[in-house]
Sequence to fold (131 residues):
Amino acid sequence: MTKKVLLCDDEIPILRAAEYKIKKAGYDVRTAEDGEDAWEIILADRPDILVTDCQMPRLNGVGLVERLRGHDSTRNLPVLMLTAKGLELSGDDLAQRLNIRKLIAKPFSPRHLLETIECVFQEQPHVELAK
Fold:
């Protein structure tokens, strides 16, 4: 079964470049431009991993991940967080507190993002989310 990747970023060129690279590798990719839209997709479509930007309108990445971790049905969803605020965020503290697999500083290469996603999938067997 094809793994589902949800990409969430309000910077459309970044979103489209990452989407292209990840789709080309054979993954089923959905996109969202803010955390509220991503939350709706997560509830409806159950991705296997979330890649989210930290700073976005309506609901930022930290708020989205806090919402995920607060619900039994989404608590274990693997998350990668993109951030241009790398030096302002305490990466280890944030990653540990929200169970984020990896913080990826912008700018990043879509190839590096794909490799990171593949590493997460290799580290962990598929986690069934509660329905």
